[in-house]
Automatic annotation (TrEMBL):
Residues 163-205, 386-433 are annotated as: Disordered. This is UBX domain-containing protein. Residues 194-205, 409-418 have a biased composition (Polar residues). Pfam families: TUG-UBL1, UBX. InterPro entries: TUG-UBL1, Ubiquitin-like_domsf, UBX_dom. CDD domains: Ubl_ASPSCR1_like (cd16105), UBX (cd01767). Residues 419-433 have a biased composition (Basic residues). It comes from the Eukaryota.
Amino acid sequence: MPSIAVHYNFSTFRVKTTPNSNLQDALRQSLAHFHLEDTPNKKWILVHNKKKIALDLPGRFLNLPNGANLDLIPEELSKNKEELGKLLKIRFQIVGRGAVIANVRSNGKMVDILAQLNLGVSLKGCTLKFFSKSLQYEQLDDSTTLESLGIDDQSSIKIILAEQQKQEETKESTSGEEEKEDVDVEYQEDENGQTKTSPAEQDTTIDTISADVQMHMITTYKPTEVSLATQLEEEEEVEFEMTIDQARRYQNILSKQTGNLNGPLLTKRLREKSEKEHSLKRTPPKVCTLRIRFPDRTHIEATFNADDTMVSVYNLVSNALLQDDIEFTLNQSYPYTALNRDESKLVNDLKFGKKNLLVFSTDKQLDQYLKDEFLSKAKDLSEADDVKLDRETAMNNARKQGTHKEEQPSTPGSSKNKTSFKKVPKWLKLSKK
C-alpha cells in the first residue's frame, strides 16, 4: 500500500504511505489539503467500501490494495452525550465463526452497529439472540437500539446465520426433544483500555454450558487420536483474512515482545511499574475455569467462583479420581509451581485468570486416573474452544510458511555449500624449488 487516493466532493488527493505506518497522518494531510478541521461536534473519518477504516492499525493489517480509493466523510456525532447513551461492552458471537467484542453506545442504531463491526458475513435472514429473546435481522429499523432491546449493561448477543439456522431446524426435526446446549455466556475482556480483547485469549467460551454457569461441574476431555500435523495435511487450503479484532490482538503481542520502537527504551524498573499499573486496571474475573491435565493426557475442566480456595479444587479432583486415597499435587503450568492445599483464594491470592491450566502430579504410575463415569462422557480434546483456536492459528501459520517457500526463487548455486574454483590462482600454487 505505497499510496492511497482520498476523495472528497469530486476531488482527489493522493497520500504516500508505508506498510508500518497508520492512516492517522493520511487523514491529517487530507484535512489540511481540503481545508477541513475536526471540531467537537464534527469528526472526519476515512471509509473504504462504506466501512470505517481503523486509523490506529498499521497499513499492512488493513488489507488495502495499492492505490485504494478512500472517501473522506464526516462522522455523525451528537452534541449531547446523553443522546448517544452510555458506553457498553457487547460481545457479538457468530455461531461457528468466533466472536467480536466492541464498545458501543446504548442509543446507537443496531443496523449501524452491525455494519461498523465488519463481521465479514451476510446478515440477511440471520437471527439475533439475547437473554431469552430472539429477533430477526429484517425486523431492525432506525428505532431499534440496545436500550430499546433492554440491554443496559455488559452483555452478549448471539448471531445465528440463515444457513446455520436451517441446519439447526433439520437437527431438531430428527432428534425430537433434544435440549439445546449451545447457549452463549457473556465474555468480558479488558486490555489497556482497548475495545477489543487481547489474544492469546480467544473470545469464545465453551459451547456446551448452561446460561447460568454451573459451578464445580466436571467436563472430561480425552486426548485426540489424530495429531495436529495430520490435520494440517488433510485440511483443504482456504484463504485467510485477518479481521480487525485479530489484527489488534496481534499488534498488542508484537508491542509487548518488542516494546515501543518509536519511544524511549524503558528500564526494568519502569517496565515493572508499567505492568503493575496495567494489572491494577484490569477487572478481576468473577469466575475461573480450571483445566487439570493428568499424566495419561486426559483432562478435566470445572468452573469455580473467584472466592473459592485451593481446598475446593483439591476436593473436586479427589472426587473424580478412581483411587481417592492417593497423594497428589496440583501444579501451575507456567511458571511450574506447586500449589498447596490451603485456603488461598484463586483470584485474590493466586492471581488466577479466567482460564487456567493445572498439572496433576503423583508418585504412583497408574493406567487410569479418573472414574469410569467421567471417562464414559469424555469428549475429544479437539472439541475444546481454546484447542480449536490454537489449531486454527497453527493452520494459518503453516499456510503462510508454505506460500513463502513457494514465492522464494531458486538460485542455481543455492544447493552448493562450497564454492569451487575453476582455476587455481598463481599465488596459491606451491613452488617446485
